[in-house]
Amino acid sequence: MKQAKDRLELLYKQREAINNEIASLEHGIEGFAPLVESVRIGPGAGVTESVRQVLKRERNRVFAATEVRDELLNKGLSLEQKNPMATIHQILARLVNARLVTVHIHDGKNGYRWIGPDGKDDVMKRAKKTPK
Q1: 51-63: pLDDT as tens digits
Q2: Phi, psi of 78 (to 5 degrees)
Q3: C-alpha–C-alpha distance, residues 46 and 71, integer Å
Q4: Residues 101, 112 contacting (CB under 8 angstroms)
Q5: What is the per-residue pLDDT for 124?
Q6: Alpha-carbon gap, residue 41 to 10, rounded angstroms
Protein backbone atom coordinates (compact mmCIF):
# COMPACT_ATOMS: atom_id res chain seq x y z
CA MET A 1 0.00 0.00 0.00
CA LYS A 2 2.84 2.40 0.85
CA GLN A 3 4.45 1.67 -2.50
CA ALA A 4 1.22 2.52 -4.32
CA LYS A 5 0.82 5.78 -2.36
CA ASP A 6 4.44 6.75 -3.05
CA ARG A 7 3.97 6.04 -6.76
CA LEU A 8 0.76 8.08 -6.81
CA GLU A 9 2.52 11.02 -5.14
CA LEU A 10 5.33 10.81 -7.70
CA LEU A 11 2.83 10.79 -10.58
CA TYR A 12 1.04 13.85 -9.17
CA LYS A 13 4.35 15.71 -8.99
CA GLN A 14 5.20 14.69 -12.56
CA ARG A 15 1.79 15.82 -13.79
CA GLU A 16 2.23 19.19 -12.08
CA ALA A 17 5.68 19.58 -13.66
CA ILE A 18 4.28 18.70 -17.10
CA ASN A 19 1.38 21.16 -16.72
CA ASN A 20 3.83 23.89 -15.67
CA GLU A 21 6.05 23.18 -18.67
CA ILE A 22 3.05 23.24 -21.02
CA ALA A 23 1.91 26.58 -19.58
CA SER A 24 5.43 27.97 -19.88
CA LEU A 25 5.74 26.88 -23.50
CA GLU A 26 2.32 28.28 -24.35
CA HIS A 27 3.31 31.59 -22.76
CA GLY A 28 6.54 31.63 -24.77
CA ILE A 29 4.75 30.80 -27.99
CA GLU A 30 2.26 33.56 -27.25
CA GLY A 31 5.13 36.02 -27.00
CA PHE A 32 6.52 35.02 -30.38
CA ALA A 33 3.18 34.76 -32.17
CA PRO A 34 3.08 38.42 -33.28
CA LEU A 35 6.50 38.04 -34.88
CA VAL A 36 5.39 35.32 -37.27
CA GLU A 37 2.71 35.17 -39.92
CA SER A 38 -0.82 35.26 -38.60
CA VAL A 39 -1.97 31.86 -37.52
CA ARG A 40 -4.94 30.52 -39.37
CA ILE A 41 -7.72 28.31 -38.16
CA GLY A 42 -8.71 25.48 -40.40
CA PRO A 43 -7.55 22.15 -41.73
CA GLY A 44 -4.01 21.46 -40.61
CA ALA A 45 -4.04 24.01 -37.79
CA GLY A 46 -3.28 22.91 -34.22
CA VAL A 47 -6.17 22.73 -31.79
CA THR A 48 -4.49 24.79 -29.04
CA GLU A 49 -3.52 27.64 -31.34
CA SER A 50 -6.93 27.53 -33.00
CA VAL A 51 -8.65 27.86 -29.61
CA ARG A 52 -6.42 30.85 -28.85
CA GLN A 53 -7.32 32.46 -32.16
CA VAL A 54 -11.05 31.98 -31.59
CA LEU A 55 -10.82 33.71 -28.21
CA LYS A 56 -8.48 36.46 -29.42
CA ARG A 57 -10.64 37.44 -32.38
CA GLU A 58 -13.51 38.50 -30.11
CA ARG A 59 -11.75 39.69 -26.97
CA ASN A 60 -14.82 41.19 -25.35
CA ARG A 61 -16.90 38.04 -25.80
CA VAL A 62 -17.28 35.34 -23.18
CA PHE A 63 -17.34 31.93 -24.86
CA ALA A 64 -18.82 28.73 -23.52
CA ALA A 65 -16.62 25.73 -24.29
CA THR A 66 -19.27 24.47 -26.71
CA GLU A 67 -19.17 27.81 -28.54
CA VAL A 68 -15.41 27.47 -28.90
CA ARG A 69 -15.98 24.02 -30.40
CA ASP A 70 -18.62 25.36 -32.78
CA GLU A 71 -16.30 28.17 -33.91
CA LEU A 72 -13.51 25.67 -34.58
CA LEU A 73 -15.82 23.47 -36.62
CA ASN A 74 -17.20 26.47 -38.53
CA LYS A 75 -13.65 27.48 -39.43
CA GLY A 76 -12.96 24.02 -40.83
CA LEU A 77 -10.84 22.55 -38.04
CA SER A 78 -11.18 18.80 -37.92
CA LEU A 79 -11.79 17.64 -34.35
CA GLU A 80 -10.99 13.96 -34.70
CA GLN A 81 -10.33 13.22 -31.03
CA LYS A 82 -12.53 10.63 -29.34
CA ASN A 83 -13.84 13.35 -27.04
CA PRO A 84 -13.11 16.77 -28.55
CA MET A 85 -14.86 18.61 -25.72
CA ALA A 86 -12.43 17.07 -23.21
CA THR A 87 -9.57 18.36 -25.36
CA ILE A 88 -11.10 21.83 -25.56
CA HIS A 89 -11.71 21.93 -21.79
CA GLN A 90 -8.12 20.86 -21.15
CA ILE A 91 -6.79 23.58 -23.46
CA LEU A 92 -9.01 26.21 -21.84
CA ALA A 93 -7.83 25.13 -18.38
CA ARG A 94 -4.18 25.48 -19.48
CA LEU A 95 -4.89 28.93 -20.91
CA VAL A 96 -6.54 29.94 -17.62
CA ASN A 97 -3.56 28.56 -15.65
CA ALA A 98 -1.22 30.52 -17.93
CA ARG A 99 -3.31 33.66 -17.17
CA LEU A 100 -4.13 34.19 -20.84
CA VAL A 101 -7.85 33.58 -20.36
CA THR A 102 -10.21 34.52 -17.56
CA VAL A 103 -13.19 32.47 -16.38
CA HIS A 104 -16.64 34.00 -16.00
CA ILE A 105 -19.22 31.87 -14.20
CA HIS A 106 -22.84 32.38 -15.23
CA ASP A 107 -25.66 30.12 -14.06
CA GLY A 108 -23.08 27.66 -12.77
CA LYS A 109 -21.35 27.32 -16.15
CA ASN A 110 -17.89 28.51 -17.09
CA GLY A 111 -17.34 31.03 -19.83
CA TYR A 112 -13.91 32.00 -21.15
CA ARG A 113 -12.58 35.36 -22.32
CA TRP A 114 -9.15 36.23 -23.72
CA ILE A 115 -7.08 38.65 -21.59
CA GLY A 116 -3.59 37.97 -22.99
CA PRO A 117 -0.29 37.76 -21.11
CA ASP A 118 -0.53 39.52 -17.74
CA GLY A 119 -4.02 40.76 -18.70
CA LYS A 120 -2.60 43.29 -21.17
CA ASP A 121 -5.33 42.52 -23.72
CA ASP A 122 -8.15 42.62 -21.18
CA VAL A 123 -10.69 44.86 -22.92
CA MET A 124 -12.91 44.94 -19.84
CA LYS A 125 -10.10 46.21 -17.63
CA ARG A 126 -9.17 48.88 -20.18
CA ALA A 127 -12.81 49.97 -20.45
CA LYS A 128 -12.92 50.60 -16.69
CA LYS A 129 -9.75 52.74 -16.85
CA THR A 130 -10.97 54.92 -19.70
CA PRO A 131 -11.80 58.43 -18.41
CA LYS A 132 -15.37 59.57 -18.91
Answers
A1: 998 999 888 899 9
A2: -85, 115
A3: 14
A4: yes
A5: 63
A6: 37
Alpha-carbon distance of 81 to 75, in angstroms, equals 17
First to last CA, the chain: 64
Does the predicted model carry a pTM greater than 0.70?
no
Q: Which amino acid appears at position 131 of this protein?
A: P
Report the pLDDT value the prediction gives residue 130, as an integer from 0 to 100: 52
| 87-119: burial string, b at 16+ Cβ within 10 Å, e else | bbbebbbbbbebebbbeeeeeeebbbbbbbeee
Please write the tens of the pLDDT for every residue from 73-116.
888 887 888 889 999 999 999 999 998 999 999 899 999 999 98
Residue % of the chain over a pLDDT of 90: 41
Of 56, 41, 39, give the one whose Cα is nearest residue 95: 56
Name the residue ranges covered by the structural domains of the chain.
Answer: 2-129
Domain 2-129, CATH among 1.10.10.10, 3.30.200.20, 3.40.640.10, 3.40.50.1000: 1.10.10.10
Q: What is the DSSP letter of 131?
A: -
